[in-house]
Structures are given as C-alpha cells and as structure tokens.
Amino acid sequence: MAASIIILSSFVVGLFLAVFGIVPSDFDFSAISKYILYLLMFLVGLNLGLDKEVVKTIKSQPKRMLLLPFSTMAGTFAGAVLAWGILRLASSLGAFGGLAETGSLSLADSISVGAGFGYYSLSSIFLNEARGAEIGTIALAANILRELITIAFAPLMVRFFGKLAPISSGGATSMDTTLPIIQKTAGNEYVPLSIFHGVVVDFSVPLFLTFFISLG
Q1: What is the mean pLDDT of residues 50-75?
Q2: Higher pLDDT, 77 or 137
Q3: How far, in Å, CA of 10 to CA of 14, rounded?
Q4: What are phi and psi of 157, to 5 degrees?
C-alpha cells in the first residue's frame, strides 16, 4: 500500500508542478522519458535473469493454469472495447464532454490504453510519444487505478470471484507490487502462479502497444 501511495503522490506532485507553471510548459520530456524507458526494460530483464526460480515456478504450474495470462489479456481487451463503445454512445447522446464528445479517442487508442495491463510507466511513455500527452495521461491514470483497485479490493475479489481474480486484476503487477496482497488473500500456493502470470503479461505489454499503436 505504501508503494502505491508514493506512486500516486508522485503523479499528483507532477500534475501540480505543471498546472501551476512551476515546470516550464515548453520543457522537452521526450528524451528523458525515452532513456528512463530503456533503463526500466534493462532492469526488468536483469531482475528476471538473476531469479533462478522463475523457470522452476513456470514448470511447476498445472497446464490449465498457464492459460491465465492469456485470459487476462482477452478480458482486458474486451473491457477496453466496451469502454470505447460506452464513450461513443455517450457522445451520440450528448453526454460527457471533451474526449468523448470530440471523438478523439479511437478504438485503437482505447485498446492501447488497456494493453498497459497495469504497467503504467511503460504504457504511458509509449503512448505519450506515439499519441500525445492526452492519451499518455489517460494510460497512466487507467493503469495506476488498475493497481490501486487490485490492492484495495483483492479480499472482495477473492470472496465473490475466486482466488484467481486478484491475480488477473493485477495484470503485469501481479509479480511485484500487488503480489503481497495476492499472497495474503489468495494464499501462498497461488504465489508461483501470480509470478508467472505477471512475467508473461509484463513482456506482452511492449509487443501489444507497438502493434496497436501501428493501427492508429
């Protein structure tokens, strides 16, 4: 929970600095964010490469359980399409303003936001550079919310939807930031599956983002 509060606070502070003009509006963040992205990908690869238990964890899982990451991806994409449809309907009815009314959020954009799978740092940088600050900010907010919702409602997810629910909800974060709450609510026996799920979903993010961005 503390890590999520720090993340959310960082976002709010950045927003505050920009809104009140403390940081110049013409400051070029693209070069900095690009190198940060490279560093993040390097650290992910380094972390996984040093963890000798990853392969053992994957091999120990029942074969049907190994389909969970792909179910998570399919469900996320379905939700992104549904969200886009709701926005389009709202626009046709004259409800909501801004993005829905102007129709600036395309179906590819909506799916691209969903394709972050909770990996807010990577997806927001990708979409910020490819689609602009508006879509990048939406991706950041949506994927941070996915993590926070998982942390806050994991006990209810387990109670009403089963022990796989918080793992799927956590998306790419099920191997790190949401893993403690998954362990606490689902049990130790679901930790290996949660790690495997996070690894697969994590590595799918740049692939899906690149693909859907190319469609836009």
Answers
A1: 79
A2: 77
A3: 6
A4: -60, -45
Q: Is the torsion defined by CA of 125, 131, 134, 140 positive or negative?
A: negative
The rounded distance, in Å, linking the Cα atoms of 101 and 110 is 15
Query: CA-CA distance, 35 to 78, in Å (whole number)?
Result: 32
Identity at 144, one-letter amino acid code: I
Could you give the C-alpha distances from 150 to 13, 21, 62, 157, in angstroms and in order? 23, 34, 24, 8
pLDDT tens for 162-201 read 999 999 999 999 988 888 888 888 888 888 888 889 989 9
- DSSP secondary structure of 103-164: T-S-HHHHHHHHTTTT-HHHHHHHHHHHH-HHHHHHHHHHHHHHHHHHHHHHHHHHHHH-TT
